[in-house]
Amino acid sequence: MREQHKRSITRWGQFCSTALSALLIATGFALVPPSEAAEVVKIGAIYPLSGQVAKSGEDTLNAIKLAVDVINGKYPDSGLPFAKPGGLPKLGGAKIELIAVDHQGKPEIGAAEAERLITQEKVVALIGTFFSSVAASVGQVAERNEVPFITGESEATPLTERGYKWLFRTTPSSRTQAKDFFVFLRDLNAQHGQKIQSIALVHENTLWGQEFGQSITGYAAEFPEFKIVADISYQQGTTDVTSEVQRLIAAKPDVVFHASYDAEAILFARTYKQFNFTPQGVMAIGAAFGSSAFRDALKDDAKYYLVREHWARDLAGKSPLIESVGRLYLNAYNKPMDGTPARAFQAMMVLADAINRAGSTDAKAIQKALQETNLPPSSLIMPWEGVQFDAKGQNTKTRGIFIQTLANGPATVWPTDLAQAKLVWPRSGPR
Amino acid sequence: MTTELLLQLLVSGLGMGFIFALIAVGLALIYGMMGIVNFAHGEFLMISMYATYYAFSLGHLDPVLTLPLVAAAMFVLGVFVYYVLVRRVINGSMHAQIFATFGLMIFLQAAAQFFFGADYYAVTGSLLSGVVLLGSVTLPMPQISAAIGATLTTLALYVVMFHTAPGRSLRAVSQDRIAALTLGVNADRMNALAWGLSAACVGIAGSLLANFYYVFPRVGGVFVLVAYVAVALGGFGSVGGALFGGLIIGVLQVLAGFYLPSTLKFVPVYLLYLVIVLVRPTGLLGRQ
Asked: Is the pLDDT of residue A33 over 60?
């Protein structure tokens, strides 16, 4: 018995060594010819590809893959930066190689993967991570290893408040975004003769949602005409939200501010309908209440939710780049691009621009180039005034829009100078 | 605090409780029979939800119509899983049993993500959507049907277990396997039957749940954790206990979610569970 066991191990070993040598020969052959081989720039992308938000992680990572394809010259006629002739010109036309890993929504896994990408895969920069809690742990690893880390969609304010020198954020922080909610309501009261007074706050309880809640309550003093009548924090991944909605009904708010991910956004919207809870408006941070998943799942009931967004396809008229990237994304992944993928795409382009200007893959040079970034609006796919980082690594030239899902899909309804459709307010009554 | 509001909370809690109960009943059945905890139980729920969703979106069949079909298909799946996987580890160590069903869980989750993607899907506008108003109390249709479905299923299970020949054999095997074998009961077939019934129960739960909850590859985990607690609360291996445990949890979490900060809504549930484990380790209705 033992003898037999031993023999099978030897046979297994033989098999392994044969397979290994075959593999070595094969890769050896593959490595011989590349004569025009410019240097490859490796970038690590860390996203949630399994678990609760796998869908959003996949959509966001897809945008980064698209950006890399654009930069590598796959779409020469797209009119986007680097598209023609492809590659980073100041690095001899070097291509970007994206190494994507899954952090499962867990900060500790994110940190371990970041460590592995830096030390073993030798990536020159990191991009990610959707979840702000994971961005916080990845940011620490990047800082310690002195590797640039750029985030295009992790919004928690503290990320750029810790004095990190290697973290750069193109998206506005949630504090900046929270202010837009009040500005919007004040504008509505002043310009459209609405009488909005009471606000209820509903947010999930990870870093992102907590932080949004704190930002909103923090701004309350600056906007004294509004009163926060309920502040409900709920556990992500819940089975039902009946009790939360009952508390909202009891509080009778004019407006609800929401910070929820896709799953709970669907659950809340369905429960609102069940209990016929119809505030004048529901305004959300993050894309969940206007995402394609939300619209597919709720059909007609998805209408009139307002999302504080960063990007919209209907802004195509304002910029040919927006039209171009929206079309490429739809063709490549067979689903329309949302605001979060758009921001991730932009972050990847900003990173590529910095690496190109650095003219090398040296971390210090890339860091310096990122600090000196000053992109004009015409080079962006975002409706921003530009990209320029402050000393904390936060982009200071962002701008927000509000999108409302109407009969023909989501449309930009605010601010007035960018609006593509008329705002529906209040949401139509019981349906 | 009005009476209507309290009534509303109770009704909503019971509605959710029946769903938890229906999932828990299947778990309790298998545990009672074989002492095996089926970690893939939540994934059975997920599969039945996908089946319901695709029958609705591709075949335009309402969940009410597909419910018996889904239950039947899940019965077959349960039996299949028993013969292909569980039978091989049933006499093995507990670790082997845990790894087998745990592995199945991971396999099914990954397969679902591979085939269906990570998107959220939901059945919209089925016959069981909408609400019924009873005075000022809102009764969501999906939850009413869940209550009726769970009650009927548990009753049917009771009739099968206590008033039919296979049911008697099932109970015989669960009480004393060796004795049952000497009396000519085919224990293997009874185990397969238990797996089939368990999967059919969760199939019915999935069909009902799909009317108001969205389906995605990890949906099983959201519900099955609560179902485990329901089983432990009601008494391991007791089908009636699982039903009872599910209802208690449903009501308790809705009340707690209203009166406490809602992030704490499951704290009283787990607290009650701890107390029961300490005071009465067999659970409320469990046997020694």
From this structure: no
Quote the minimal CA–CA distance from B70 to chain A in Å: 21
3-class SS string, A130-169:
CCHHHHHHHHHHHHHHCCCEEECCCCCHHHHCCCCCCEEE
List every span in chain A annotated with CATH 3.40.50.2300. Answer: 40-172+317-379, 175-309+401-414
pTM of the model: 0.76
Give the three-class secondary structure for A293. helix
Q: Write out the two tokens for A358.
A: 């650095």
Using the Cβ of A275 and the Cβ atoms of chain B, whether some distance falls under 8 Å is answered with yes
The verdict on A252 touching B (C-beta cutoff 8 Å) is no
Interchain pair A234, B218: CB under 8 A: no
CB contact under 8 A, B254 and A274: no
Residue A75 · residue A86 · CB < 8 Å? no
Average pLDDT over residues B256-266: 87
pLDDT single digits (tens) A82-127? 999 999 999 999 999 999 999 999 999 999 999 999 999 999 999 9
Helix (H) or strand (E) holding A79, with range, is: none
CB contact under 8 Å between A239 and B223, yes or no, is: yes
∠ CA B10-B15-B18, nearest 5°, is 120
Summarised one tens digit per residue, pLDDT across range B46-82 is 999 999 999 999 999 998 899 999 999 999 999 999 9
Whether chain A has a CB inside 8 Å of the CB on B203: the answer is no
Element (H, E) at A42: strand A40-47
Q: Which of A147, A131, A134, A166 is nearest to A60 (CA)?
A: A131
Query: How many Å apart are CA A285 and CA A49, to the nearest integer?
Result: 22
Where in chain B are the domains? 3-17+40-221
Q: Which amino acid is at A62?
A: N
| Pairwise CA distance, residues A291 & A60, whole Å | 12
Inform me whether the C-beta atom of residue A58 falls under 8 Å from chain B C-beta atoms: yes
**CB count in 10 Å sphere of residue B158:** 14
Which structure tokens are listed for B287? Answer: 């046997």
Asked if B1 reaches chain A (Cβ–Cβ under 8 Å), the answer is no
On the question of pLDDT at A6 being above 50, the answer is no
Which residues in chain B (35-54) have CB-CB distances under 8 A to chain A? none
* DSSP 3-state of A92: coil
Q: Is A134 in contact with A103 (CB distance < 8 Å)?
A: yes
Residue A231 is inside which H or E element, if any?
A: strand A227-234
Which of A242, A246, A252 to substitute to test the interface with B, most B CBs within 10 Å? A242
ipTM over 0.90: no
- Distances B204 to B55, B199, B276 between C-alpha atoms, Å: 14, 9, 29
Could you tell me which CATH class the domain A40-172+317-379 is placed in?
alpha beta
Beta pairing, strands B137-140 & B131-134? antiparallel
d(CA A243, CA B88): 45
Helix, strand, coil percentages (3-state) for chain B, rounded to 5, are: 75, 5, 20
Residue A90 CB: number of other CB atoms within 10 A?
A: 13
Q: Is A81 helix (H, G, I), strand (E, B) or coil?
A: coil
CATH architecture of A175-309+401-414: 3-Layer(aba) Sandwich (3.40)
Which among A274, A297, A298 has CB closest to B138?
A274
8 Å CB contact between A102 and A92:
no
Residue B121 CA, distance from chain mean position = 21
